[in-house]
Amino acid sequence: MKAAMSLVGNWGFISATELLIASAILCLIFITIRFYRPQMPKGLKRPPGPWGYPLIGNVLELGKNPHLTMTQMSQKHGDVMQIQIGTRPVLVLSGLDTIKQALVKQGEEFMGRPDLNSFRYIGDGQSLTFSTDSGEVWRARRKLAQNALKTFSVSPSPNSSSTCLLEEHVSKEADYLVMKFQQLMEEEKSFDPYRYVVVSVANVICAMCFGKRYSHDDQELLSMVNLNNEFGNVAASGNPADFIPMLQYLPSRTMKIFKDLNKRFSEFVQKIVRDHYCSFDKDNIRDITDSLIGHCQDKKMDENAKIQLSDQKIVNLVNDLFGAGFDTVTTALSWCLMYLVTYPEIQRKIHEELDHNIGRERKPRLSDRFRLPYTEAFILEMFRHSSFLPFTIPHCTTKDTVLNGFYIPKDLCVFINQWQVNHDEKLWKDPSTFNPERFLGAERTEINKAESEKVLTFGLGKRRCIGESIGRWEVFLFLTTLVQQLEFSVCDGGKVDITPQYGLTMKHKRCERFQIKPRGRSFCRQ
Ligand code: HEM
């Protein structure tokens, strides 16, 4: 996700003066709040949780891997736990049943987004994903985005034998990657695949949003990819003003960089939308944006202003889809490659399955998913084991409610610990072992649906990822095309480091020692 903002992180960059002023004021507020704590409704309890310090709350305990610490804390305090990050109380939900109860059964109550300082700068506060709006306008915009994704992905491909546009774009990019990796092997003898995967995935989104594929050396595309990575790096260090709101009034270097990057990203998207506006399915989008405008704007507004607003919504839409759709898919694919080289035996089984069911002559297609259960199981296990989105995007409550007998007030920030669910010993045998077979049915010829549905990667309920199908399909098609034609390893049989580095999307350490061996006939385009 573009806004790879970590929930907490390295707070070492607050200056001593910032800290002193804020401490003094906040100690006072803290004491006042403790003294005048609101009364609990009768018969209900406050969620349990660890005791925190004034001003910083539990920040020190959370350390460098908050998903692991919160998992440990939840073992002591339970699936509904309240912690304090800075001055902000945060409800942390663990356990698949509790999370389903909150996000699905009580979906309306847990669907909000918190008013975090950083979120206000993403897409000028108009983002579908991050804005605090979860009412009528948000619903219309989510629908618009879902329709746009459908139009851009599953529509039949007019110019090729592919079954849909998505298959055509991914297949083309995956072919290019095979060719690029072969060329890198010849010229450099080893390479870092991430640098090339990221551009290919960005290209798929570009093709879907703008109907245009960029060359891998295109400066415009490369600058956007770099911008997004820079954004991820800054955001991964965490923004203290999100959790100590008072800090937003003090000058902050992180916030300045954050605003600047957001502005540059928006300008980039606006430029490409202007350049490629003619390739949008405007009638479809305008129909929906018109009804959206009807909800939120004065109906007497003149036509020009309506069109402008419509275009503005398209900019926001592209901003949302681009941001959400390319970092996630790139990260998933690069985790797949890491697991392939870490477990050569598993890679061999995927090769066997591909050879047996597709051969090496025909290109893999999306419809092959059901013929390749082991490969599908591998992808599921990658999602589960890496849990590279350890938390969903933060939620917040839209009204006072009760969960598992605990009183939960309106506007409380809620973290959903996906990592905990994916490593819960009550749900998984040996959760720390990477074992795709856990997802195969008794016959080993199909995926065990009940097991696969326990993996939590795309969130649940009203805020569930709208790009889930596209994300899964992209990962499948990129992976099968690469693995059908190439065998991956690292130089000298070396090991790679697959320890996740904390962030909203957790990455592994980059590895420049990848090697490939071609596996027979290749049908790459030159
Ligand atoms: C492997 C790929 C992907 C993963 C793991 C993933 C995961 C997620 C997660 C965890 C959320 C937050 C859910 C929540 O807050 O409860 C999310 C939201 C979202 N995702 Fe994805 N995603 C992926 C790919 C995509 C793609 C390809 C697109 C679009 C092109 C997309 C668009 C979105 C949008 C727009 C939201 C915000 C939904 C809302 O707030 O209503 N995602 N995704």
TrEMBL record:
Chain segments annotated as transmembrane: 12-36
Matching Pfam families: p450 (PF00067)
Keywords carried by this UniProt record: Endoplasmic reticulum, Heme, Iron, Membrane, Metal-binding, Microsome, Monooxygenase, Oxidoreductase, Transmembrane, Transmembrane helix
Localization in the cell: Endoplasmic reticulum membrane; Microsome membrane
Record-linked Gene3D superfamilies: Cytochrome P450
Membrane topology, from the record: Peripheral membrane protein
Coarse class of the protein's main subcellular location: endoplasmic reticulum
Cofactors: heme
Listed GO biological process terms: hormone biosynthetic process; progesterone metabolic process
EC number, UniProt record: 1.14.14.1
Superkingdom assignment: Eukaryota
GO molecular-function term, one example from the UniProt record: iron ion binding
Chain residues that bind heme: 465
Family: Belongs to the cytochrome P450 family.
Function: Cytochromes P450 are a group of heme-thiolate monooxygenases. They oxidize a variety of structurally unrelated compounds, including steroids, fatty acids, and xenobiotics.
Name of the protein described by the UniProt record: Cytochrome P450 1A
Organism of this sequence: Sphenodon punctatus
Lineage summary: Eukaryota, Metazoa, Chordata, Craniata, Vertebrata
